[in-house]
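User: I'm designing a mutation panel for Derlin and want to avoid disrupting the core. Could you give me a predicted structure to guide residue selection? Please restate the sequence first so the numbering is unambiguous.

Assistant: Good idea. Sequence first, for numbering, then the predicted structure tokens:
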Amino acid sequence: MAYQGFAQEYLGMPAVTRAYTTACVLTTAAVQLEFITPFQLYFNPDLIFRKFQIWRLITNFLFFGPLGFSFFFNMIFLYRYCRMLEEGSFRGRTADFVFMFLFGGFLMTLFGLFASLFFLGQAFTIMLVYVWSRRNPYIRMNFFGLLNFQAPFLPWVLMGFSLLLGNSIIIDLLGIAVGHIYYFLEDVFPNQPGGKKLLLTPNFL
């Protein structure tokens, strides 16, 4: 029964959320089973452009570290907010959702060229959280029963929690910055006097 319930829940996930979370879990499992190592996955511009290891442009978004609290924490937030976006403001707009993935990934990769960042999956998760939070500004949130706040503060609360765990906040700030750029170009600027929609989903999507 538990297996059937899990299978039903898994198959009920929207396509993009299911594909991304599955890729992240399988990548982590492959590392845990020592089929591959993180050294084959991390973002390295030299290996990408000189050795043509193009897969690193994708795999650095799929690995969240070894199994542990940090991994499960990231997976929960990735699954939850990716799904809520896809089933909410992107319902029936799968191509637009994929384009947001590509746009966000492209900006993060550009930043990664100039900074020593090896894995960008956490930044990508924060971007998804940021966009969701700005599109749902009146939802009340509760963080581990300790804090109550409005949804737009959620990315900053997560960054503070990451800081308490001793992690660098550069990744979180990158996710917030890219999320804000997307939100501004997609939701704010087109509604300004003289503004227009600049992010146009390509026809091939």
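For picking mutation sites, this is relevant: Residues 69-87 form the longest helix (19 residues). The beta strands are 140-143, 147-150.
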